Amino acid sequence: MKRILLALLFSAIGYLAYSQPSQDFGQGWAGEFNHSTRQLVALAEATPADKFSWRPGPGVRSTSEVYMHISVGNYWLLGQAGAKLPAGAPKMAQDTETTVTAKAEVIKWLKSSTAAVSAAYAKADRQNQVKFFGHDGPAGNVYLRILVHNHEHMGQLIGYARMSGVVPPWSAK
Predict the structure, then answer these.
(1) pTM of this prediction?
(2) C-alpha–C-alpha distance, residues 18 and 28, integer Å
(3) Please, are residues 110 and 69 in contact by the beta-carbon 8 Å criterion?
């Protein structure tokens, strides 16, 4: 009976340890952005290089194109928020989403763009008025768009991963 109780106790402890939410949850914009960044990078790193060209159908972005869309979007949206891009930020061409396809290079862009967003957010005047898609509003609204955009495409990439046989690392336990 003691063994059964101990086994149940350790199972419960293991379940609770695994099921605890990220410490970033409920910690505002920066916490949520950090959480989504860790998941995006973890998923990209867990995806085999040959799956970066996978696409669910003709005319739909490939895995690498979605990651690059996020990265290019991060830089573009930072500009819309009035942030100065960091020195050494990758130069974007009109076709960057489709020409940067190698796993290592895609992950480099993803990491650099999310680091740039984090750094800019930390020192941004989010009440500064900017024009965004024809509307005047606070720069903070653009940062919210960055967070939503990254989460939107993370959901897409989770679907891509599962359809191509990749299990997201945080759900593989």
Answers:
(1) 0.84
(2) 22
(3) no
Question: H or E segment at 43?
Answer: helix 28-46
The domain spans of the chain are 27-171
Q: Which pLDDT band, with edges at 50, 70 and 90, does 81 fall under?
A: very high
Is 90 exceeded by the pLDDT of residue 5?
no
Q: HSE of 41 in the Cβ direction (CA atoms, 13 Å)?
A: 14
Which residues are 137's β-sheet partners? 130
Identify the H or E element spanning 136: strand 135-138
Average pLDDT taken over every residue of the chain: 87
The DSSP code for 70 is: H
For domain 27-171, the CATH superfamily is dinb family like domain (1.20.120.450)
Percent of the chain with pLDDT over 90: 75
Q: Which residues contact 64 (CB under 8 A, 6 or more apart)?
A: 52, 53, 100, 101, 102, 103, 106
Alpha carbon 83 to chain centroid, angstroms: 19
